[in-house]
Amino acid sequence: MKLDLIENLIREAKGVEARKLLTELAKGKIAENERLRFASLARRAYLPDLAIKILYPKFRLDSRIKQNPSVFEKTEYGACLIRIGAYCEAKKILESVETEKCKEAWFFLAGLEIRLWNYQAAIPLLKKYCAQPDVDPYLKKAAKINLAISLFYEKKYGLAKSLLSESLEETQDKAHSLLHANALRQLGVLEFNRAHWEESKLYFLQAKEVLKDSMGLDSFLCDKWVGIVDYKIHAGSKGTRERLKSLRKEGGEWKHWESVRDIDFRLAVEEKDVSLLTHLYFGTFNERFKERVLEALGGEHLPREYKWKLGKGKDPVVVVDPFEMQGDGFKTGQATFRLLDALASDFYRPIPIVELFERVFIGSSYSPITSAARVNQVVLRLRKIFKKKRIPLTIQIKDAEARLVAEKPVHLIVRNYGKTLDSVAARLELIREKCPEVFTSRDAAKILELSPRGTRVWLQAALNENLIERQRIGRDFQYSIIQSAIKLAA
Question: What are phi and psi of 468, to 5 degrees?
Answer without folding.
Answer: -135, 165
